Amino acid sequence: MTTPTMSTNVPPGGTEVRPAPSKPPVRQRRQEGGTILAVPALVWYLVFMVGPMIAIFVIAALHWPGMLQPVSFAGFDNVRTVFGDPVFWDAVRNTAVQLAVALPIMIVCAYMLGYYVAQKPPGHRVLRYLLFIPGLISTPAKAMVFYAALSPDGLVNGALKSVGLGSVTDAWLASPSTALACLIVLDIWGGIGFTAVLFAARLGSVPEEIGEAAQLDGAGHWRTMWGVHFPVIREYVGVVTMLQFLWTFFGSAQHVLLLTQGGPGSSSTTLSFLVYQKAFIAADLGYSQTVGVILFLVGLVGLLGIRRAFRQNY
After folding, report:
1. Which of 116, 197, 207, 240 stands the most exposed, by the fewest C-beta atoms within 10 Å?
2. pLDDT averaged over 10-residue windows placed end to end, the chain, 314 residues
3. Pick from 72, 118, 5, 65: which is nearest to 279 by CA?
4. Distance (Å, whole) CA 226 – CA 111
5. Residue pair 224/296 in contact by the 8 Å Cβ criterion
């Protein structure tokens, strides 16, 4: 019985010719190259973003009375200390008031101002640059401007006296009833111009035919602004709102530090400033990072809530 033989591609010279190995597809090579290029950024993110985030939760469970002091495990003692501290609840109230007042005013006014700029009125290019000015000024410089305006002998009291309202004058930054309000005004002034420019840039990409069709149907500027253009950029409004929420929620400590130091008493202490105060002034790192954990969790819930509120309905 004969066995079948497999045919091979053997040329007359007797040497077998093997097919060349196939190269991976171009798309696969591009994906591999993109992965390699992303490794440095991924390492940077893990070390300087994820690492500190994990450290916050670890330090919150420690009793650490200073950077060079011995460390011991505290468990949930820091949580009980924080929740039993009246200053913490004052900071919670102040932060809630700050967000509830500053964020809606900033977003609504910035959207209206951005809509006006997007209509390209006379001088709209110059107006765009003017709106950027608060964003170009450093935080200490902005604090000095507000300190000069709101001090007892400052511009605000001087203007009130000049119009016969001297009885209304006050030490605005040193009064428990007005210190937080002054910080909120600074937050709004510092963020409204930059936010308006962002809205103007996004509204400028909306097709003009949409607004023209609405006006032909009898819609005025107010109805066109809120009933036509706002639904089109609804998700973008949500993104900008999230950015301003984060800036106000986590970045208010610098304004408090430069202008009021959290006082008088705790009338202008916010949660972000309380983290700084307990860590660098009171040297209670466990308490500080426990508040930091609360900030992280509340900020995450806030972002998810804003995203859900501004998602498209179609």
Report:
1. 207
2. 50 54 58 73 86 89 85 90 95 96 95 91 84 85 91 90 88 92 93 91 88 81 89 92 93 91 92 93 92 94 93 69
3. 65
4. 10
5. no
